[in-house]
Amino acid sequence: MKRTEFFRKIASFFIIFCSFFTLNAQSGTKLMIEEDDDFLLQASPIYEGVAEFEEKLNLIRKNENREPMGLVLCGGSARAFAHIGALKAMEENKIIPDFIIANSMGAIIGMFYAYGFSPDKILEVVSNINLTQYFEPVLPIHGGILSVRKFRAFVNDLLGKSQTDLSECPIPILVVTEDLYSKRQIWHSSGDFAKIMTAAFGIPAIMEPTNYHLNDDEKTKVKLLDSGAIDIASLSVAEYFSKNIIISTAFYDSVLNYNNIIVILNRLMAIGKERQAAIDIKSYKPVIIRNDVEHFSFMAFDKSDELSKIGYESTLKVIDEIKKCPHSFKNYSERRNQTNEFANNAISHALKNETILQDETYFGLKNWPVFPVIDYPDYNLFNSIGISAFSFLDSSKIFLSGGIFFPIKNKFSVNANFTFKPSSVFEFSLLTLYSFKYKNFQPSDFYTASNIKFRPSTFPYEFKSFFLTSEYSANYDLKPQEMLFKLGANAEFKNDKKFYVSIKPYYFLSGSEIKNLSSGVGVNLQTMINASCFSKKEQNFTVGLSENFSTRYAFFNFEKSSPKTLIYSSDFYRTTKPSDYNNFVLSNDTELYFANLNPSLTFAELIIVQQWKIGGFFDELYNKQIYLCAGGFFRGKFSLIGLYDFVLEAGCGWNITKQNFFGYFEMKNRI
Q: What pTM does this model have?
C-alpha cells in the first residue's frame, strides 16, 4: 500500500514537472512582432513636408494665442462640390480656415482653394469646363480603366506653370493618400501638386494609380490611390494637429438595389469608410457642416451649381456655431487676382481645345468600338463600323498608335495613326489602313487619309478651325479607286441643354483619277433647339426640334469619273444609298422629340444617364430622285462614373423608297 502511494506521488510529480516545461515551451514560441515590422508600420503614416506644416500652425499659436482652425473636407466624389458653397458661406462671414485636411474629391476643392482660387472661381471652372474630356478609357495595364494623364496636365495649366509644389499654397493644406507598396497612409503637405491631386481622388480599379517619388533623401517610390476608400473624412488626421476643427461632409444615403453585386461592393466600401468617420465624429466632436447632398449620386459631376448651392445653404444653418470657434480672416485679394487670370486662361484653353503639355510620355492599350461619326468625323470615305484594338504613345504634341481594326464586314485591317499638334494653332493627322480578307487572309484594299487643321489664336472659341483633308482609297495593289480633297471651315455654337448650331462650308475635289477630278462646293448645317431655351427657369422636361442639313454641288459633269463619294450627313444610313450621283445632292434629317434633361438615373453605381430623348424622324435625300424614310428613335447621354461621356442611339423605321423595315444602333457624337 505504501509502495502504491509512493509511485502515485512520483507520477504526480512527473506530470507537474512535464507540464511546467510544456508551458514554458509554449510561452517561448509566442508570436512576437517587432515595432519596426512592416505589418505594424501600416498603422504609422509616412510624412511629406509635415514638419514645415506644423511650424506654420505653431506660428499661429504663438502670434495669435489661439488654436489654429482646421477645416476637413470629406470625400464623396461629385457630392464634394458642396464644399465650394461651404467655403463661400464661411468667407462671406469673414471666416477662412488656418489649415485644410482633405482626401478624395474633397482634396480637389481644398487644394484649389488653398492655392488661392476663390469659391466662385472654382465653381466657374468646374461649371464651364467639360471635365470628362480629360479622362480616357484604356485597358487596365496600369491598374485602372480611366487614364488621368490629361487631367493632370489640365491642373498644371490651371496653376499657370508646368510644376507646382503643394507647400506653395498660402493656406497650409495636408492631403491624405494611400500607398499600395507599403500599405501606409501618406500625409502630403509638400510635393508635386498635380500628381498629389490625381492620386487623392484616384478611385481604386477605376482610375490608374499615380506613380510618385516622395520628397525625401531616398526619393522613395510609392504608388498612390484615394484614401477616401478607407476613411472618407480623415478627421483623426486633423485632430492630430488641432482641437479646433470644422468638418464639411458629403456622405451618401440613398435607396439602392442590393441584388446587384457592384452595388453591394460599393455599399460595403461605403460602410467601412463612413463608419470610421462616424466613430471619429463621436470621439472628437467637431463642428459639423452636414451638407444635404446625401441623396445625390457620386457620379453627378454635371450638377456642380446645384451641389454648391446646397453646400452654401447647409453652412449658413450652422454658421453661428462656426463663428464660436477661434478664427481669423486673412485677405488674399492679391493672390485671387493672380489665380483669376490663371483660371480664365485655362477655361479659354479648354474651350478652344488647345494643346496642354503633359508631364510625361504615356503608353497605353485600347480596345474600343469605332464609329466614323465620332472617331473620324472629318473623313467621308471611311465609313466602316467595328472594333479596334491598338497600342498608343502620347507625349502631348505627338500621338502614335497602331493596331488592328475589325469592321462589321468580311475583312480586317492593320492600321496606324499619327497626330502632330505642337499648339492650338496647328494640327496634322495621318491615318492608314491595309485590309485583308477573313477567309484566306489575302490583301483586300488600302486606305489613307490626312487632315490639317489651322486655327488662328485670335479667333473666338466658337470657331473650330480651317481644315484641309485628303483621302485616298485603292485596291490591294494600290490602284486608285477614289480620291477626295476638302478645304473648308468649321464653327460651333452650343449649350447642350438648350441649343446647338454647327456650320461647315467647304470646297471639294473628287474622283478616281487626278486628271478627271470633279470640283464643287458644299455645306453641312446642324441645328438643335429645345423649348427650354425660351424659359428663364431650369426645366427637366422639354420638347425640341433638330435639323441636319447637307448639300453639295459639282461644277462639272459629276458622272464623268463615276465617283462613289457623296458628302452626306451622319444619319444618311436611315435612307437608301444611291449607286450613282447627280451634280446636285441634298439631304435633310428632321427630328421632333421629347427630352428629359436631368433624369439622374443610375445603373449599378457605375453608369449614370445624364439626358435622354425619344421622338420621331423624317429623312429626305435628293439625288436624281427623292429618297424618303421615317421612324422613331431613342437617344441617351450616358457617363461612366460621371467622368467619361458617350451617346448611344437606337431606332427603327420604314424606308418609303424601298418599301422595307429597318433598325439600327450606334454611338453618336452629341445628344
A: 0.86
